[in-house]
GAF domain-containing protein (Larkinella rosea), 161 residues
Amino acid sequence: MAETLVLPKTAQRQEIYESLLPQLQALTEGEPDLVANLANISAALKEAFGFFWIGFYLKKDNQLVLGPFQGPIACTRIDFGKGVCGASYSRKKTILVPDVEQFPGHIACSSDSKSEIVVPVFDKTGEVAMVLDVDSDQLNDFSELDVQELEKVAALITSFL
Ligand code: SME
């Protein structure tokens, strides 16, 4: 496909997600390189929504290690069970954090991050292969819509793992 995103001129996240998902599918289809695909997915989510930080932490041995991302530099390694990312990995569940200061053990890579959502990405055996982390510089910026739609992005990634 052409390497250009076509996005609706709206601030409605639902419409943007609806337009974006098939484009992410087309963008990654037939490309076997994981880093290339995660890099383009990060860039597309950043371009579509302007998120403060969006990226991946990949399970490598006994830690989560920073992968492709868009935004300010970030912590490189997170232990399982630590922070929102490590908690999502260990619980195998999406975690929505309306106010990062209220999440015990939150890891502040940037003091500008105010709310966060972390979605586990499963491999085909049902193990968590990585987490998708999205940070906002606004409090309470994520909702069930983001949970549902970012879980669809995670499912797309599972399809090519
Ligand atoms: N806040 C995350 C750490 C990663 S950064 O937000 C990019 C956490 O608590 O796991």
Observations:
- Residues 53, 74-75, 78, 83-85, 106-107, 109, 113, 116, 133, 135 surround methionine sulfoxide (CB under 6 Å).
- The longest strand covers residues 128-136.
- Residues 13-28 form the longest helix (16 residues).
